Structure formats: C-alpha cells, structure tokens
Amino acid sequence: MKNLNYPIVIFLLIAISLNSCENIGVGQSEIVKSPHLERRGTVTQLIVNDKPWLILGCELGNSTSSSRDYMQDIWPKLKDSGVNTVLAAVSWEQIEPEEGHYNFSIVDDLIDNARNYGMKLVLLWFGSWKNGITSYTPTWVKKDAQRFPLAQTLDGKPLPILSTLGEKTCAADGKAFAAMMQHLKKIDAIEQTVVMIQVENEVGLHGYPRDYSDMANEAFRGQVPRELISWLTSHREMLLPETLQAWEQSDCRTEGSWEELFGTNDRTAEIFMAWNYATYIDRIAEAGKREYDLPIFVNAWIVQPEDIRPGNYPSGGPQAHNHDIWRAAAPHINMLSPDIYLNDFPSILRLYSRSGNPVFIPESRSGQNGAANAAYSIGSMGAIGYSPFGFERDCSQDVNATFCQFYKKMSCIADTVLTAQAEGRIGACWLKGSNPSKVKDTITIDDLHIICELVSSGMRNGGAPQLTGGTYPADAAGYVIVIRQSDGYLFLGSNARVTFLPVDGKGYVGLAKVTEGEYDDNGCWHEGRWLNGDEIQLRYDLLYAVEEGFSGQGLNFGRPEPAFLKVNLFRY
Questions:
Q1: CB-based contacts of 171: which residues, under 8 Å, 6+ apart?
Q2: Residue 110: helix, strand or coil by DSSP?
Q3: Average pLDDT, the chain
Q4: Looking at the domain 429-571, which fold is it?
Q5: Is 418 helix (H, G, I), strand (E, B) or coil?
Q6: Which tens digit of pLDDT belongs to each residue from 123-177?
Q7: Is the pTM of this model over 0.90?
Q8: If one looks up domain 50-211+274-412 in CATH, what number appears?
Q9: Are 404 and 388 contacting, i.e. CB atoms less than 8 angstroms apart?
Q10: Phi, psi at residue 500, to the nearest 5°?
C-alpha cells in the first residue's frame, strides 16, 4: 500500500467542505424569498422569511434616524414599548453627499441596531420630495436648478419643489436609490431586517393645482399618454367614481389633450400632476426593484376638511381619489398608504382600501386613540400594520401607557391574528365619544351580532342601573377585537361593553363560560379567573333586555387598559 500524503488530503477535504458550505448558503438564499406581499384569503399580508409579519410600528421623527448616537437611547425605549418594526428615514443627501460617491453607514447603523434589539425596519427614502417640498436632496442637486429644474408658480416664480418633468433629476434620484437597494441585498437578503421601502414622502404640489413651468405647460397642452388611456379603457368597469366622473366630461374620449379628455378645471390639473408624480416615482421604484425586489409603497398627505382645491393639499399625490391614475402610471408600487390624523379614522381607511389596495398605515396617532385605530385597522381591515409618528418622543410617558399595553398584547398573539385574518375569523370595532354615530358598533361573525358600546355613565328605563347607553366623555376612545377559535371566541378590548344577538333574531345568546387570562411571549394562554355574576351581568332591567333580544349578560372591558377574555356561548 502506498503512503498517503496527509497534508494534501486534509487540504482537499477542507476545500470540498468549504465549497459545500458555499453551495448550501446559495441554496438557502434562493429558497427563501425576499420580503414580499402575498394574498392570503381576502387580505394581503407581508411575508418575511417565509412567514407572515404583523407590523407593530413606530415612524421616527424626520431627523431622529440621521445619527447613530442620537438613536442609542431610543432603541431600548421602543423595544420596551412593544414596537417590533421601526420606520426610519434615509435621505439622499446622506447617502450621496458627493455625486457618484455613496455612504451607507447610516443604513448599516440602523440595520445593526435593529438586529440587536430583535426588530425589523421599513426604510423611508427621502429623495426628491418630503411632504411635497424638496429639502433632502444633496447640496449638488440643490445648487443646480438648470440641471435639476424646479416647479413654477403661475407667474413664473420658482418653487422649492423639484419638477416632476426633470428627467435628469429622476435619473439621479433613481440611481442613488438603486445603489442603496443593491447594498441592502448584499448585507440583508438572508437575515431580512429591512422588510419594506417607502419611496419619497407625501408628494404633491403645494399652492397650485399644477406646475406652470415651460416644460409642464407644454406637456399639459400635449396629448394624454396612450398608456393612461389604454389603462382607463381596459379597467373602465372597475374605475373609482372620482375617475369615471372626470373622464365622463368628454364622454370617455380616447384621444386628446388633458383638458379635452377631463375638462377645463382644477381636477384635470390634478390628474395631470398625479400622472407625472406617479410616473417619476415608478421609475425610481423600478430601478430599486431591479437590484432588490422589496415591497414598495408611497404615503399620502390626505385631504383635510378645510381644503377646497388641489394645492391646498399636495396636488397629484396618492390621495384616495387619485388611486386609479397612480395604478395606471406606477405598476412597481405595491401600496398607496394614508397618513391619518383626522378623527374619522374608519371612513378614511375604507377609502384607501378600495380596489384591493393593501392596508398599511405608516403615520397616525399614538395614545388611546391610536390603540383604537390600530385595533380597527388590523382586526377589521386586515392591515399589514400600523405606525404612530414620532412615537419615540413620548413612548415612555403615561399618555402612551395603554398604547404600549396594546402593542405588547398584540405581539403575543400576532401569529393568531395573522392566521385569523387570512381565514376570515376576525373582526373589530372602533368607538369614539366625540362622534355620536361611533359610540356603538357591531361586529358580525358567523351567526352572531357582537354589539360593542363605549363605556358610559347613566341610567336606563327609569333608574335601573346599567353600564351602557348613557353619556360619553368627548375624548373617550375604545375598541374590541374578536377572533373565532375552535373552542369559542377570543376578545381583546378596552373601554367597551359587549353584548350578543343572534343574526337570525331567533332566541337568545347566553354566556356559558368567561375567563380572563394572558398570553406569554410564546403565544401560550395562561388562564386566570372564571368570571360570572357581577363581572358579566351588564343589565338588571331584564324585562326590557329580553324585549330587546338580549340576555342581560355581556363582557365588561370597563377600563382603558386592554384585556383578554375567552368566551364560550350558547343559544336558548
């Protein structure tokens, strides 16, 4: 037998082993898709590492994420608040301070810290526009209005807003964004810390319905692009009423200028701007997706009650009435998401969920009102997630105690919620003392009407004590989420009382068993007290209750602090 050369054999074995490990790594990265949106049942969900992810978010203040040192004390506060996803701005001016020279240290810092605290990230690309204004572009862009033209007023004055018709601007913005996306794929494709991207922020033209620069005037007088006409024609039966009303100005002509197709009015100017903003941003999104295909959304500065024309709000942005134009122009944008600070949260959210638009709220309120908003959007609208703006500033203060409690409880049942969304076994209500039409709401699941009413004070029917139907503090807010399970119903509620009626109106619904309890971090239920007697008897005026179809019993979430209850029901 010949002697083996052991050093050579060992070297070959190591080389084979290393090559095998490299192949395994490649295979894993190919098998696991990048974060993406997926239709499950009747809802769209965010899939991360092949599993649904529920965003319990916080959008940081505009400048908060620009400094690693500034963020050091913020990360642990957000973690303690129940936040699992941070929405953080990344600006073009920091990424490309000198043309063609990129600095991704701010991105790397955010990813490192998010991983250290077990969180995900949604990066907000502040490039050509932020809140409709141009302020996050590099200095070399700001100083060269000849190369990077600005929008203009009716009398030719330059606005501090980049024109949507600046081809070189769009190319430069897209090039920087694509470079960042290439970097993200290189450092994060396997771990998937960054789960979505917002491109620009609350875009649209301030002050005027449209841009009046020479380029814009020429484009406005020209023909409506064939791509838009083709999309409107092929989707005519599904168009939003706002789109159809504008197009019917010309009996739905398929050729002509903007005013010939949509009329001589501010709405036409807004449609023109919507097409141009959407086209511009889609080019940026497309450039980024070529490098790393993450879900991309744009957010909307919504129309305010006092606004009377486009330009009072940023004209041409992704407001609900412009969605058809954005869909036609921007196929690489996955969601059009509202920033909601107005009081009638449910009505606004329903406008933005039309035509199958996935539901995500990147900016809204925190506090008890924010908890009600989040509960409704996730439980009733199948939302991907919810995010209050600037939450890092007061997340540890008493005003946000109940909001943090809501986030922590939701994080424990996130998998349960996501499965129930996909299977249609979940509902929610939103209750508000300042809105008379919203002090009571009904969730219908299976053969049950689940009546939810804001906590109140008062008496019913000549003095019989009761816990609902009285007076409501104007600032009171409540919510209820209900999930049907194999052994009954799971409730998460705050500031609300819950009663039950049969959908068919036959008989009564009684409470067979009610237990309080908590879920641990692993999603395991730990049962507490069995509730009966005073804890579930909401009404003692039984004759009146029976005449109204109720048993007199119900669930009492009589405090702003959210609580879980598990319920088994019976019919009699």
A1: none
A2: helix
A3: 92
A4: Chondroitinase Ac; Chain A, domain 3 (2.60.220)
A5: helix
A6: 999 999 999 999 999 999 999 999 999 999 999 999 999 999 999 999 999 999 9
A7: yes
A8: 3.20.20.80
A9: no
A10: -135, 140
